[in-house]
Amino acid sequence: MQKQATDADKQREITRLCIQTALLLLQHGVESTVVVQMASRLGVALGVDSVECALTPNAVILSTLSNNHCITTTRKNTDKGINMQVVTEVQRIVIAAEHHIYDLRHVREKLDRIKPLKYNRYLVVVMVGLSCACFSHLAGGDWTIFGITFIASALAMYIRQIISARHFNPLIVFAVTAFVASLVAGSALKYELGNDPQIALASSVLLLVPGFPLVNSLADILKGHINMGIARWVIATVLTFGSCIGIVFALSLLNITGWGA
Q1: Backbone angles phi, psi at 83, to 5 degrees
Q2: pLDDT digit string (tens) for 231-250?
C-alpha cells in the first residue's frame, strides 16, 4: 500500500510538471503540436507510460497513465505574449530530462525558475522604429521617408508599451497604436514630404502585423488542431481589424480621402 501511495504521488507530481510545461509553451506563443509533443516527451522521460494532452484557447487538459492508473488535471490559459526565450528554456529542460541529466526534482526547480526575459523598453522602441524605417527605405523611400517612418513607428511603439502596461484590451491597443503611427506618417502624405509619402504610411504600421499568430493558426489547422487554429486566426483577424480602425480614424482626422490623394 505504501508503494502504491508513493507511485501515485510521483505520478501526480509528473502530471503537474507536464501541464506546467504545456502551459508555459502555450502562453508564450508556440504552435499546438509542439506543446503536446513537449508535454508528452517530458512525462515519458520522467517515468509515466503515456501522456494525453488536449488544448483549448482558454485551458489545457492533460492526463497521465502509469500502471493502469490515470490522473487528469486542467489549467486555465492566459496569453502572456510571444517569448521565444521561455520556449527555448522549456525545450532544453525537456531534452535534459530525456537524456537523464535532470530528474523529477531538477525539472521542477528549473521550471519554477523560468522568468521571461524583457528587453529595455527604449531599446525596443528604437529597434522597432529602425526596422520599419528600413522597410520604407527598401520599398524605395528616400531619407526623408526613412526619418518620418522611424519617428512614426517609434512613437507608436512607445504608446503601445504604455497602453499595454495598463492592461487595456488588445483591440484598443492596436487601434490606438495604428492611429498614432498613421497620424504622424499621414502628415507626410498630406504635406507631400519625401519622394513617396505613401511608403511612410504603409511602413509605419508594420509593427502591428500579427505574423506569429497567423503562422501558428495555419500550422495548427494543417496539423489537426482545428479549434486552436481557428481561435488563433480569429484573434489575429480581430487585431488586424483594430489596426484598420486606427488607420481610418487618423486619415479621417487628416482629411485624407485616399492614399493616392
Answers
A1: -150, 100
A2: 999 999 999 999 999 999 99
Distance (Å) of CA 199 to CA 30, 142, 207: 32, 10, 14
* C-alpha–C-alpha distance, residues 155 and 180, integer Å: 7
Q: Which residues contact 5 (CB under 8 A, 6 or more apart)?
A: none
CA distance 103 to 112: 14
What does the CA dihedral 112, 116, 120, 125 come to, rounded to 10 degrees?
Answer: -170
Per-residue pLDDT tens over the stretch 103-132: 999 999 999 999 888 888 999 999 999 999
The pTM of this model reads 0.84
Interior angle at CA 147, CA 144 and CA 170, nearest 5: 135
Which whole-number Å values give the CA distances from 62 to 21, 25, 74, 112, in the listed order? 11, 14, 6, 19
Evaluated on CA atoms 167, 169, 174, 180, the torsion sign reads negative
